[in-house]
Specification:
CATH superfamily of the largest domain: inorganic pyrophosphatase (n-terminal core)
Number of helices: 12
Structural class: alpha/beta
Organism: Desulfoplanes formicivorans
CATH architecture of the largest domain: Alpha-Beta Complex
Shape: elongated
Radius of gyration: 24 Å
Protein name: DHH family phosphoesterase
Strand content: 15-25%
Distance between the termini: 76 Å
Order of helices and strands: HEHEHEHEEEHHHHHEEHEEHEEH
Pfam families: DHH
InterPro entries: DDH_dom, DHH_sf, Oligoribo/pAp-PDE_c-di-AMP_PDE
Strand order of the largest sheet: 3-2-1-4-5-6
Bound molecules: manganese (II) ion
Helix content: 25-40%
Number of strands: 12
Length: about 325
């Protein structure tokens, strides 16, 4: 019994598309799983065609993504028309063409993905494999490498392992047996120090000033923590900080707020066990702005004109206090 499922028929179809004089460009909406998948496909295409490039369509700013590109030497470039003009065949991994407007102009010969299939976008490509039951596209690519007798080198194995790790949130989210098998298989080839370095690249130097602000301004309210940061360069920093403080033992919810684009942005994070953050956000700010989300994460955005002359921090604290008082006071006895 082979370790992975047999892909002889698919591999024959895939190889049937390749010709020596072709120049292939692999497109991605870059995240770790997509970049690892592109590296794997490049490995498959290399030496069978004239050249293989990798291009991304989104903004790349997450530190772990940047660390991955640098440490695993991923030759990825921003997609621009002059770059696309150098290629005559196009492939897409970890995405489908309707996922991003910049994919629309291309005619894809290969699509390998694990996102859901939508009825209104039936796949119609010379080669495709779309498997929504897979937790990560990297697992799918690992199966292809294995079936083609291609042993992943240290850098590729580390990339694929990180792809599986991020997409399955270290197997805390949906995954199947192939994801587990691929993960175990790749551990024979990867470099643990590289993986550790990429995993721990979580913050940017420019963000550290916000950490010191948050430590100075934070208030503990029972099992919760809140901090108002004033103006922030990007609301993303509120998300980073909220996730960071959720790692403190004993806290069950965190509320990080700041001002951006004439709005008060409030990011909610919870442990998903007690309070429902979506309802919490709705109850606190639903009357003055957009507010909502899931059990463990939510967000509110309040136009500053809805706050009036009040200081934003005061506005939040008063609403929190009102909520706590309401919760603490016993129900009035029936008359
Ligand atoms: Mn993916």
């Amino acid at each position: 019994m082979a370790y992975f499922r047999n892909l002889d028929a698919q591999v024959a179809n895939l190889l049937g598309l390749l010709k020596k004089d072709q120049r292939w460009l692999i497109l991605v909406n870059a995240d770790p799983d997509a970049m690892a998948s592109a590296m794997a496909l490049k490995r498959i295409l290399a030496r069978r065609v004239t050249s293989v490039g990798i291009a991304y369509v989104n903004e790349l700013s997450r530190p772990d993504n940047l660390a991955m590109i640098r440490l695993l030497r991923i030759p990825i470039k921003k997609l621009i028309p002059t770059l696309a003009a150098q290629y005559d065949r196009f492939a897409l991994v970890d995405s489908q063409p309707h996922h991003h407007p910049d994919f629309a102009p291309f005619e894809f010969s290969i699509v390998i993905d694990h996102h859901p299939l939508l009825e209104e976008y039936p796949p119609d490509f010379p080669f495709y494999e779309i498997r929504p039951d897979y937790g990560s596209n990297s697992s799918l690519m690992t199966e292809y490498l294995y079936n083609m007798g291609l042993r992943p080198g240290k850098l590729l194995a580390t990339a694929l392992l990180y792809g599986i790790k991020t997409d399955t949130q270290s197997f805390e989210r949906d995954f199947n047996d192939a994801d587990i098998k691929a993960f175990r298989y790749l551990t024979k080839f990867y470099n643990p120090n590289l993986l550790h370095k990429i995993t721990r690249s979580e913050f940017r130097v420019e963000w550290l000033k916000y950490f010191s602000q948050a430590f100075r301004k934070m208030r503990i309210l029972g099992k919760g923590l809140t901090a108002f940061l004033g103006a922030v360069d990007s609301p993303d920093i509120l998300v980073i900080l909220a996730d960071f403080f959720m790692r403190v033992h004993g806290l069950s919810w965190v509320l990080m707020s700041g001002l951006h684009d004439d709005k008060l942005v409030v990011v909610f994070r919870g442990d998903g066990l007690r309070r429902d953050m979506g309802k919490f956000a709705q109850g606190l700010f639903g009357d003055v702005g957009s507010a909502g989300g899931h059990r463990a994460m939510a967000r509110a955005e309040i136009p500053l004109e809805n706050i009036g002359n009040q200081h934003a921090q005061q506005f939040i604290l008063e609403r929190l206090a009102r909520k706590r008082k309401k919760k603490a006071s016993p129900k009035p006895a029936a008359e």
